[in-house]
Design brief:
The chain has about 775 residues and is mostly helical. It is built from 29 helices and 9 strands. The longest helix is centred in the N-terminal third of the chain and has 33 residues. The chain is elongated.
């Protein structure tokens, strides 16, 4: 800073002259000394910095010297700073920038490159590592010396920074010359490593880092100059391995080697390659070891996928799934084999049933627990395989589904699988059905049967049969437990929706309400002092919930008629508008019978009880007389009398004796009847079919027509094939054929719900 003192101006010439001369002398004294280019470069920068640095590098840091201490570095930096801040024409920024590049270039071409050209293979890589490390050190120190260039000259002239310039010189002068040889040396070491040899991983990693650095901020150099060759070499290597392994090894052994190869390549990337190469490298291995021979491995005799499934080789199946799952479409052939294998096991179940039916030569029944159990075990086994070995993959779930849709909907013998499955459920849920199971075991079996049911295309037929069997269990009191019944209905509801199970739930609801009705009616009878020899109760059923049953207008006994009249009076007082119709074929009774000196409790149907009451006190009736007395048709009375006179417990004597009932036969109570048990049940052939086929067909027709109308109302106009496809997609409980749908369309056209298009006969229009 300058302090200026104001004084009066004196007009003195001598003084003025002396002051001007003093200012010139002061100005000359403060001006810094100009540093000439050659002086600063040769005497300071080159002699005291560059030559010293090169000497350190060439002597491999002899004496432990790693660089320059502050006392050496600061004067060099100051000289560069001064040379770059002098006024033009003495500003040497451009010259210093150029000489910085020339210094690096000369050292690389005269010292580094000749040294590298003398080496090959692993020695080349070692020498390259040393030279690259030295270059990084040299580049860093030169950047420190010429820092001022980076701050101003480089920035203002948009030039590469000193570090970038140093890297570019190395790339052009050294890297571009030896990269091919270096790449070959690396590939040799990698292949040696694959063959089990011990290699210097750090050396490979250092050279890989050099390739990465030559990308100047990206991986282009690494990708083009090393990775491409590495991938090609990898493919060739594993192609040779594949050709050898596929001949000598079984599929499991081959896959073990493949799994190990993938793990080794992944470790190789982690040890000394760039992480971006992992996916590409593994893809090469997958293509050569898996994709190229997939079908050959999967279908290999004695060790392929089918063999592993047949022998429960869980670990090998998991490995196969994991490895082929790496390929884009690798699991599809495997899933196809799984589906075909499961289907073949289902074929064996059907064949075994056919053979059993031939051998037994007995009347075929709608219950075959052995066959259904075999299907359940088959499904459970391969459901577990798909969940555990194939991780529940969608392709294999579809394979299981497609296989079991084929298995479950194939008919063997007289009865459909819908009937056999419903019969199996009935056997489990019926007390005394043949299997003694705990509650958890019952629920487990029901859960599995519902899984099998999900593949059934005739779900509506199953529902009709199941509902009929459920009604018999409930009305005869032979249901195992309400909880089990509710469990099964809940499972079906979850599978098919509320509409599917609404009637079944209504049946259970009727029974729940019925118990309250019975209690109330019993109380009324006691209140009225109603006297009867019968323990009489009535179960009121809602017509829409229960299966239609044959109405039998039998003439009941006097005592029964008396009780029925009393119940009607009570019921009408509560529900005057409801009509009661007695279904005698569905009722049951316990009859106390005395034969000789022994009394028995006989469990029979209500109709059987009415017949026994008619034959009480030793009376004899001919078939015709009995039919007239009880107002029973021949078709009803014959099975009734057969059950009482020709079965295991012949409580009625038939004349003449025989196993068939004739209209000329006469009947009376069997005075010589005797049984080892005091309490027994006399079964009777059902008067109704297990299911109403006609009703099922009618319901299907209504469902098809409703679907067609619903679709056409929304679309207005639709082609035939599109309409058929849409209807099939909407029908969940059965699968009609195209001919049935076509007939339904024709019926709707006749009834003027639809019309054919005037322009195209294959297109339909909706008529509002």
């Amino acid at each position: 800073s300058y302090h200026i003192t104001h004084r009066p101006i004196q007009h003195n010439t001598t003084n003025t002259t002396n002051t001007t001369q003093h200012k010139r002398e002061m100005s000359h004294y403060n001006q810094p000394r100009i540093i000439q280019l050659e002086e600063g470069w040769n005497d300071q920068i080159k002699a005291k910095a560059i030559d010293v640095l090169i000497d350190i590098l060439d002597n491999n840091f002899e004496g432990g010297r790693k660089g320059f201490d502050p006392g050496e570095y600061i004067p060099i930096y100051t000289t560069c700073y001064d040379m770059c801040t002098q006024r033009s024409p003495y500003n040497w920024s451009r010259d210093l920038y150029n000489r910085h590049g020339e210094t690096i270039q000369n050292y690389l071409t005269r010292t580094v490159l000749p040294a590298l050209r003398q080496e090959s293979g692993i020695q080349l890589l070692k020498q390259l590592r040393v030279r690259w490390k030295n270059h990084v050190i040299m580049n860093n120190w030169l950047k420190k010396f010429f820092t001022y260039l980076d701050r101003y000259y480089v920035k203002h002239h948009s030039l590469p920074t000193l570090s970038e310039a140093g890297l570019r010189h190395f790339k052009i002068q050294v890297y571009d010359v030896i990269k091919s040889d270096a790449c070959s040396a690396i590939l040799d070491m990698v292949n040696q490593h694959r063959e089990g040899s011990v290699i210097d991983k750090d050396l490979v990693k250092n050279i890989v880092e050099l390739f990465e650095a030559m990308g100047m901020g990206n991986l282009e150099a690494y990708t083009a100059d090393l990775e491409a060759a590495l991938l090609s070499s990898t493919s060739e290597y594993y192609k040779r391995q594949c050709q050898q392994w596929i001949v000598t090894d079984s599929t499991p052994d081959y896959l073990i080697k493949t799994e190990r190869a993938l793990e080794e390549e992944r470790a190789r990337v982690a040890d000394y390659l760039n992480s971006e190469s992992e996916g590409k490298l593994l893809n090469c291995v997958e293509n050569e070891l898996l994709e190229s021979v997939e079908l050959e491995l999967l279908e290999k005799e004695g060790s392929g996928c089918r063999f592993l499934l047949a022998n429960d080789k869980s670990e090998d199946l998991q490995r196969m799934f994991n490895l082929f799952g790496r390929l884009e479409h690798g699991l599809e052939p495997m899933a196809s084999i799984v589906q075909k294998y499961i289907t073949s096991k289902g074929d064996e179940c059907h064949t075994a049933r056919e053979e059993r039916l031939k051998v037994e030569k007995a009347k075929e029944q709608n219950v075959d627990p052995e066959f259904i159990s075999a299907l359940l075990e088959l499904h459970q086994k391969y459901l577990n395989v798909i969940r555990t070995d194939f991780a529940g993959h969608a392709l294999f779930q579809k394979a299981l589904k497609d296989a079991f849709v084929d298995i479950v909907n194939r008919k063997t013998g007289k009865y459909s699988n819908a009937e056999l499955m419903s019969g199996y459920c009935d056997r489990i849920l019926k007390s005394g059905g043949g299997e003694k199971l705990s509650e958890s075991e019952v629920e487990g079996k029901l859960d599995r049967i519902v899984q099998l049911f999900s593949y059934l295309t005739e779900k509506d037929l199953f529902a009709e049969i199941y509902r009929t069997q459920l009604s018999k269990r409930l009305l005869t009191g032979r249901s195992l437990s309400d909880d089990s019944e509710k469990f099964m209905i809940a499972k079906l509801k979850l599978q098919c929706g509320t509409q599917f199970t609404s009637k079944m739930e209504g049946m259970l609801g009727d029974l729940a309400v019925g118990s309250d009705y019975r209690s109330e009616f019993d109380a009324r009878m006691r209140q009225d002092n109603f006297s009867t020899k019968l323990d009489f109760s009535v179960q009121v059923l809602t017509t829409g919930f229960w299966p239609s049953s044959k109405t039998v207008n039998v003439v009941p006994s006097t005592e029964m008629t008396k009780c029925m009249g009393e119940f009607k009076k009570w019921h009408d007082s509560k529900h005057a508008k409801r009509k009661l119709t007695y279904m005698f074929a569905l009722g049951n009774a316990t009859v106390r019978a005395v034969f000789g000196k022994k009394s028995y409790d006989i469990q029979v149907a209500t109709l059987q009880a009415i017949v026994l009451d008619a034959l009480n006190d030793g009376v004899t009736y001919t078939f015709t007389e009995l039919a007239e007395k009880l107002n029973l048709e021949e078709a009803v009375l014959k099975p009734l009398m057969h059950s009482l006179s020709c079965g295991k417990f012949k409580v009625v004597k038939k004349e003449p004796s025989g196993s068939k009932i004739s209209t000329t036969d006469s009947f009376m109570a069997n005075p010589k009847f005797s049984a080892s048990t005091r309490k027994f049940r006399i079964p009777m052939a059902s008067l109704d079919a297990t299911h109403n086929v006609k009703r099922v067909e009618e319901d299907r027709t209504h469902a098809i027509e409703a679907s067609i109308v619903r679709t056409m109302k929304a679309r207005k106009t639709l082609a035939h094939q599109s309409l058929v496809a849409e209807v099939l997609s909407q029908l969940a409980f059965f699968r009609p054929n195209a001919k049935t749908i076509k007939m339904a369309i024709a019926s709707l056209i006749d009834r003027q719900y639809l019309e054919r298009s005037a322009d195209d006969n294959g297109v339909y229009n909706y008529l509002a």
